[in-house]
TrEMBL record:
Domain of life: Bacteria
Oxidoreductase molybdopterin-binding domain ranges (all copies): 105-260
Species annotation: Trichlorobacter lovleyi (strain ATCC BAA-1151 / DSM 17278 / SZ) (Geobacter lovleyi)
A Pfam family of this chain: Oxidored_molyb
UniProt name for this protein: Oxidoreductase molybdopterin binding
Amino acid sequence: MQSYKLPTSELTAEEVFRTRRTLLKALGFLGLNAWPLLNACTNYAAQSRDLNGTLVNLKQLHAPRNGSYRLDRPLTDQAEAAAYTNFYEFTHSKEVWRRVDRFLTRPWELKITGLVKKPLTISVDELLKLIPQEERHYRFRCVETWSMAVPWIGFPLSALIKRVEPLSSATHISFISFLRRDQAPEQKRSSVELWPYHEGLTLAEGMNDLSFMATGLYGHELAKQHGAPIRLVAPWKYGFKSIKSVVEIVFTDRQPATFWNAMIPNEYGFWANINPAIPHPRWSQAEESLLGSNERRKTLLYNGYTDQVGGLYNLKDRQYFY
Ligand SMILES: Nc1nc2c(c(=O)[nH]1)N[C@H]1C(S)=C(S)[C@@H](COP(=O)(O)O)O[C@H]1N2
Ligand SMILES: [Mo]
C-alpha cells in the first residue's frame, strides 16, 4: 500500500497528524473517539457475569508447566485479561468478547507453505495430537503501555518449524490471520485493504525457544477474543507481533510485510522489540500499567527476556526497536 507512505519529513507534526487522521478515517480506522493503539491504558475493573459465563464453557486442557519460565509478578486475573483485548477484526474497543459470537474457530485449518521441504496443511486438532503441549507463564506488553502476565498453553514454534524442514534459502516467516467479512464486523465495515492481519519474524527469532504457538490460556482452550484456536506469542516484542487466529504460515527469503507497518509506517516497523529507553513517537514506553491492578512498573528491556533473545540484536542499533 504505497499510498500510506507519506513524505513525513516534509510535513510539520500537525500536518502529519491531520493527514493521517483523514487517511485512517477514510479507511474506517477511526471511530468516534478511537485511535488504534492509543486507547487510554488505565486499569480495567469491569467484571462481568456474562464474560465469566463464556469462560466457563471453554474446553479444559491438561499440559505440564515448563518451569524454566518464571514471573516477577502475580498472574493477571483471567477475567480482567479476557475483558480487555485487542482484536481489530472485531472492534476497535477492548470489549472484543462481546463481538465474537459469530466467529467460528472449529474446524480450523492451518497451512504451512513457502520455502520448506515438507509443506503441511493440517487441522488444529490434528496438529495438537502431533506436538506435545506445555504451559508457560509469560509477561506480555502492549505498545499502548498496558501489560499482563498469563499462563499460555501451546508448543514452541521451533517444533513446528522443524517438522516442515525449511530450505536453506528461508530467512523469514510470515504469519497470516483469517479473512472472513461475514464473521468479523470490522473486516466488513472498513475498506482497509490490509486485511487479513499479518505479521512476521526472522527464522532465527522463530527458532528461539521463547517463540510460542498458543492454543490455550488459564488451563483451557483460548477464548475467541484471545485469538482462538491458535496464535503466536512473542513476549519480548510489543503485543501486536503476537498475531491471533493464524490460518497460514509462509517461509520466505525476505522480510515480510506487517499490518501495523503498512498502516502507520512512521510509528511501527518490522522488529518491535521492547525497549523502555526508546519512546513511541507519541508516548513514553518507560512504564506499564498491570492489567487488573493499580500497579505500574518500569518496563524491562526485551520485556525481561534479555537472556533468551538479547543475542539476536544490537542494542545500539535503533532499527531493532521500531
Ligand atoms: N489477528 C490479530 N492479531 C492481533 C491483533 C489484532 O488486532 N488482530 N492485535 C494485536 C495486539 S495490538 C495485541 S496487544 C495482542 C493482544 O493480545 P490479547 O488481546 O490476547 O491480550 O494481540 C495482537 N494480535
Ligand atoms: Mo497491542
